[in-house]
């Protein structure tokens, strides 16, 4: 399923969502324009590597990559899919929270997602980058905040794609269950096929759990 847009209009200009997208794009441009050796050094220094985190778990500096890895990406498709999802769901969640609370929420769920990835494979030596854990948190918030919204979705049908209006909770639940299935299959490996499934799962769950605490006005909940 390929989400195109949602039916929930934004009331305010999503400055925080756009700022996060812009920051991710700028860092990605930096990554791909560096000489190879410097790019690899950047990945080693700022990507999240579970085994390295385990070795230095009591050193404050070991926690920095949990944060910095959220703003790095592996390739064009990686950043494109992540930033599209953030744009699709982030503006509405930011509407309910306000820009500052939204940024705090985004970082919180991203950190929780990163830690979940560590728990799933603490000895993994594979560098992990990407905003998908934090974006999964935004999707988890959207799941509860906008129960009446619909997602315009392209669904493959033989050789063509057809456009459907899918209720947002259904779309997000299907996505989440897909992550759970893949996560269970990846137990003990942490990252399989280049995807940190447990980061997605716990990003989504933490977003659903914490979102209510970040809403500006509780009476807006679920409208």
Tell me what the structure shows.
The protein has helices at residues 15-33, 36-46, 50-55, 64-68, 76-97, 99-120, 132-145, 168-185, 197-214; strands spanning 2-6, 150-157, 160-167. The protein has 223 residues and is mainly alpha-helical. The protein has one domain: Rhomboid-like (Rhomboid-like fold), CATH 1.20.1540.10. The protein has a 3-stranded antiparallel β-sheet. Strand 2 (150-157) and strand 3 form a beta hairpin. It is globular, with a radius of gyration of 17 Å. The two termini are 26 Å apart. The mean pLDDT is 92.
TL;DR?
The protein has 223 residues and is mainly alpha-helical. It is built from 9 helices and 3 strands.
Order of helices and strands: EHHHHHHHEEHH
Provide the domain count.
Answer: 1
Query: Low-confidence parts lasting 5 or more residues at pLDDT below 50?
Result: none
Individual helix count: 9
């Amino acid at each position: 399923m390929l989400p195109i847009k949602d039916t929930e209009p934004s009331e305010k200009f999503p400055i925080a969502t756009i700022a996060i997208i812009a920051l991710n794009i700028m860092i990605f441009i930096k990554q791909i324009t560096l000489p190879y050796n410097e790019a690899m050094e950047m990945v080693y220094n700022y990507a999240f590597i579970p085994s390295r985190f385990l070795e230095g778990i009591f050193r404050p500096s070991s926690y920095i990559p949990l944060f910095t890895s959220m703003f790095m990406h592996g390739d064009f498709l990686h950043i494109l899919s992540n930033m599209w999802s953030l744009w699709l769901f982030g503006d509405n969640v930011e509407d309910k929270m306000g820009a500052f609370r939204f940024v705090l929420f985004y970082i919180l769920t991203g950190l929780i997602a990163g830690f979940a990835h560590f728990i799933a494979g603490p000895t993994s030596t594979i560098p992990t980058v990407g905003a998908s854990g934090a974006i999964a948190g935004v999707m988890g918030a959207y799941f509860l905040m906008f129960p009446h919204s619909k997602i315009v979705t392209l669904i493959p049908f033989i050789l063509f794609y057809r456009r459907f209006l899918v209720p947002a909770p259904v779309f997000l639940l299907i996505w989440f269950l897909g992550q759970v299935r893949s996560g269970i299959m990846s137990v003990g490996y942490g990252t399989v096929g280049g995807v940190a499934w447990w980061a997605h799962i716990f990003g989504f769950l933490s977003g659903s759990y914490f979102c209510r605490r970040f809403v500006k006005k509780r009476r807006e909940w679920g409208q």
